[in-house]
């Protein structure tokens, strides 16, 4: 075998390894856009949106909202959540587009800082489950929309529902790297 054929086989083997690793990374993080198409809004039934969704360590939740309806307060206790008591929040989110990494298991409570909106149901509790341990979990590559349907692959980031993000960037970097190796004759 010539040196060139051996190098090409090495590059192909590295590409296969990278694709395999990228698949694990992509499935590890799910982005949930709270409220789907409407976002965090008094007209959104956030409770219905969240039912049936699974939130896991490593996922992110995204809040998109108009500050006219108040900011988002993260609260410590179920009592504060149920009574819409925002006098002692853990944190206030005020940007209108906030993403929150779910770093550990447990329940987190989010409410509108506008008392009227909160009492009308603009609040969300998220039970964060452990990360998946199954390498070939059939749900790990599903994307669910705000309507509750599911498909196997995402076309890219969407403003609603849940999406796996990051694959395009990883594949782009891997493609540049492989092109460099091939161009340099390695």
From TrEMBL:
Pfam families: Cu_bind_like. The keyword Signal applies. Gene3D superfamilies: Cupredoxins - blue copper proteins. Residues 141-152 have a biased composition (Polar residues). Keywords: Disulfide bond, Glycoprotein, Membrane, Signal, Transmembrane, Transmembrane helix. SUPFAM superfamilies: Cupredoxins. Residues 1-28 form the signal peptide. Residues 30-130 form the Phytocyanin domain. One of its GO terms (cellular component) is plasma membrane. Residues 132-157 are annotated as: Disordered. The chain crosses the membrane at residues 165-183. CDD domains: Phytocyanin. GO terms for molecular function: electron transfer activity. PANTHER family: BLUE COPPER PROTEIN (PTHR33021), OS02G0720100 PROTEIN (PTHR33021:SF31). This is Phytocyanin domain-containing protein. The lineage of its organism: Eukaryota, Viridiplantae, Streptophyta, Embryophyta, Tracheophyta.
């Amino acid at each position: 075998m010539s040196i060139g054929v051996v190098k090409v086989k090495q590059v192909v083997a590295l590409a296969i390894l990278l694709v395999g690793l990228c698949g694990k990374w992509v499935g590890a993080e799910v982005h949930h856009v709270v409220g789907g198409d409407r976002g965090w809004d008094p007209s959104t039934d956030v409770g219905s949106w969240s039912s049936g969704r699974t939130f896991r360590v490593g996922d992110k939740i995204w809040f998109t909202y108009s500050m006219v309806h108040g900011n988002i307060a993260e609260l410590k206790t179920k009592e504060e959540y149920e009574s819409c008591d925002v006098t002692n929040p853990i944190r206030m989110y005020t940007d209108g587009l906030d993403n929150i990494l779910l770093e550990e298991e447990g329940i987190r409570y989010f409410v509108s800082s506008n008392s009227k909106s909160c009492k009308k149901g603009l609040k969300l509790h998220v039970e964060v489950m452990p990360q998946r341990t199954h390498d070939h979990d059939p749900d790990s590559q599903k994307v669910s929309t705000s309507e509750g349907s599911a498909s196997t692959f995402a076309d890219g980031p969407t403003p609603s529902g849940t999406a796996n993000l990051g694959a395009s960037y990883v594949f782009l970097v891997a493609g540049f790297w492989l092109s460099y190796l091939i161009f340099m004759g390695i």
